[in-house]
Specification:
Blueprint lengths: L1 H24 L15 H12 L5 E2 L2 E2 H4 L7 E3 L4 H5 L5 H23 L9 H26 L2 E2 L14 E2 L1 H16 L15 H14 L3 H12 L26 E5 L10 H5 L10 E3 L1 H4 L28 H5 E2 L3 E3 L2 E3 L7 E4 L6 E4 L1 H4 L9 E2 L18 E5 H14 L5 H14 L10 H16 L5 H7 L3 H4 L2 E2 L14 E2 L5 E2 L15 E2 L13 H6 L10
Helix pairs in contact: 2-5, 2-6, 5-6, 6-7, 6-8, 7-8, 8-9, 8-14, 9-14, 14-15, 14-16, 15-16
Length: 551
């Protein structure tokens, strides 16, 4: 019996060894192998598409480029406070951003290390183009990491196991790397702007460099990168005539868009409309504008509401910057065919989807999932794609031309190189919106205030506000204390004080107790919260990762 068992075991062992040997000698037949991948153009294109897949991350089904306003003064999240979303080591969105950006970097590194395997099958100029596309995407991923976390690990090749416990590299060194990658890649990228394709263009490379430079206070580099894009105005880039079209389906093909994460109904959708819309159109207003944003918009004479004779507290939406009506769903307006009224006394409202219109129960005033602030986002909510599941195929804008004009103006102002081009850049954006020009003769500080306000009005709801108030070092003033919604049953009798940067100050506002206060008290520690924490899970597996101060 012992001999019999021994023979069986020996036979099994030989079978396993032979099978393993045969298996190790053969490459997989049903999917690419890292040993042979990137031997032809189709595989290279497949690999670059694989890089793009990491861009489809979200915060509560809101595409990541747009999610960050929920951590700022102009927006609120029903279920979480900003400090839970962006200042917690265990925040899911921060961990997902970190993981996906490094996943993208790793895929870029693999392509750049192995793309020359295809040199016998792919012309050299095409290989150079694919390398440029890969390099600029890698630079973009690093831009996000340093913008959120500051110093991060720098990885420019596929790591071995022995190299896996990487340390953080200085933000300044990574900025230099981003600049080099963008400059060198731009030489080979296409100039033609194809806004609904995610094509990587010269404009995309320059936009990555411009925003990185702006956030890093590298003003000369920001001016240089913006000027390259501005030189193509009217050829590849425009200001869309109707501001309201940009974040709608009609805007997917607009040449104002430099680059956006692409969505379509057949493959990739996001659920932003269900998070933004009110109850009557089938949403639940999980993310909403705050009273602080609503009170920021100037009157059409270019004056803030506490100084303009055109402001009427009892009719607060009249004579205001037209962008307020195209960015925010205001009480009394029509949204998806329904009267939008959040006054708690308005128990019924009009349904204009019926002919003739009829009165129906007003869920925007009574439902538990109606807007806590009394306002909603109009951006990224298009009635042309009214779906019961709330899915949307509107692209998530990353860079657009109006932002480039404002980045250029800000960088020139900070350099104190104030000339006609600064006024022209700001006034192009204001003129498109229907607002009066900034008149010449302003001081550096007056223009600094003007461009900061303009960024707030123009880019509200597009994910940039958190980064702006962090880099301007004003977040501790704007993000501490009560976050207000509208007066639930009327309007204040007067306007709050508006500071030079367009921010309302409710500290001594006599009617602040009338505002809705369900948005909660916010906390921001200036010694800590100007950077987000390195995710807890990453530091658990890598003991060499240090944490940002204060966490």
């Amino acid at each position: 019996m012992k001999k019999y068992i021994s023979c069986i075991l020996t036979g099994c062992l030989l079978t396993v060894l032979v099978s393993c040997e045969n298996m190790l000698e053969k490459y997989p037949l049903n999917y690419p192998s890292t040993e042979t991948f990137l031997q032809n153009e189709a595989e290279i294109q497949m690999a670059i598409v694989g890089i793009h897949s990491v861009l489809y991350i979200s915060g509560d089904m809101v595409p990541y480029p747009l999610y960050y306003d929920t951590g700022s003064d102009i927006a609120a999240e029903r279920d979480s406070k900003p400090e839970q979303l962006f200042q917690a080591q265990t925040a899911g969105h921060l961990n997902e951003l970190w993981t996906n950006m490094y996943k993208g970097i790793n895929r870029c590194n693999f392509i750049l290390e192995n793309i020359d395997r295809a040199s016998d099958n792919v012309p050299g100029d095409k290989l150079t183009l694919y390398k440029a596309q890969t390099r600029v995407l890698r630079a973009y991923f690093y831009h996000w990491l340093i913008s959120v976390f500051g110093d991060v690990p720098f990885i420019d090749h596929t790591l071995s196991l022995d190299e896996s416990f990487v340390m953080r590299e200085s933000k300044d060194r990574i900025i230099e790397f981003i600049f080099t990658e963008c400059d060198e890649a731009a030489q080979y990228l296409q100039q033609t702007n194809e806004p609904n394709t995610m094509a990587m263009t010269k404009g995309f490379a320059w936009a990555v460099k411009a925003r990185t430079a702006l956030y890093g206070e590298r003003w000369t580099d920001a001016v240089d990168a913006c000027q390259k894009i501005m030189a193509l105005e009217g050829i590849e880039y425009i200001l869309e005539p109707d501001y309201g079209d940009i974040t709608m389906l009609r805007g997917k093909t607009s040449k104002e868009i430099i680059w956006a994460v692409q969505y379509n109904q057949d493959d990739k959708q996001h659920l932003m409309p269900s998070r933004f819309k009110g109850r009557l159109p089938g949403g639940f207003t999980n993310k909403m504008p705050t009273q602080a944003l609503v009170d920021s918009y100037e009157c059409i004479d270019g004056l803030p509401i506490d100084k303009s004779p055109l402001y009427d507290p009892q009719h607060p939406w009249e004579n205001r910057d037209p962008r307020i009506h195209k960015s925010i769903v205001l009480p009394g307006s029509v949204f998806f065919g329904y009267q939008y009224e959040t006054n708690r006394d308005s128990l019924e409202c009009w349904d204009y989807n019926q002919s003739p219109a009829i009165r129906i129960p007003n869920l925007e005033a009574t439902h538990a999932y109606a807007s806590y602030s009394g306002y909603g986002w109009r951006k990224y909510c298009d009635s042309l794609e009214y779906r019961t599941d709330g899915a949307s195929s509107i692209n998530a804008i990353v860079f657009r031309y109006a932002d480039v004009l404002l980045m250029y103006a800000e960088a020139k102002i900070e350099l104190n190189q104030i000339d006609e081009s600064v006024y022209t850049a700001i006034n192009k954006v204001r003129s498109r919106a229907g607002m009066p020009d900034i008149t010449p003769g302003k001081s550096q500080q007056e223009l600094r205030a003007a461009v900061r306000k303009e960024r707030k009005y123009e880019l509200a709801g597009e994910g940039l506000r958190l980064f702006d108030i962090r880099r301007w070092k004003i977040a501790d003033r704007l993000m501490n204390g009560m976050c207000y919604g509208r007066v639930p049953d009327g309007y204040p009798a007067t306007a709050p004080r508006i500071d030079e940067y367009g921010n309302p100050d409710y500290t001594s506002f006599p009617e602040k107790d009338k505002f809705g206060t369900k948005l909660g008290v916010r906390f921001f520690d200036p010694a800590r919260d100007y950077l987000s924490p390195i995710p807890f899970s990453e530091r658990q597996v890598n003991p060499n990762l240090t944490q940002n101060p204060g966490y």
